[in-house]
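ok so I'm stuck.
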Amino acid sequence: MAEAEADLIRSIEHGTVAGTLPDLLGTRLAGGEERLSSYRGRVVLLDFWATWCPPCRTALPKLRELVAELPADRFALIAISVDEERETVARFLADEPMPWTIWHAGTEGEAAQLLRVSFFPTYVLADERGRVLARSNELEELRPLIDEALSSKEG
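replied:
not stuck anymore, here's the structure
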């Protein structure tokens, strides 16, 4: 019981608006591991997705547009795949390029569990300090918040 309680408290501290993203260790689809903290200093959008998720695939053109429009030194998109097999994601990318960071977490990934992700896509937006600004299943409602976070960083 105490372990379940501790997990719940961690997810509230790290996965809710005004919480701080945990320093997750992610496995890049291209190989190697990296820490989420290596993105500090940039506004970060986490995209929990899967190849089998129709809304996730539908969002790809908007995500490509977002990444193309925003400065890479100030904004980062990290797509965290919950597909069971890494190869499934690699095959998918052959036809659907995703020119941003892609982590493969699989079905048991720590990030999705810790941040209590149960629907796909789920987007988690954080400012340059890692503070969670928003969570949503709708990319369109996050764009004004992304722009605001980037403009507040300028000033």
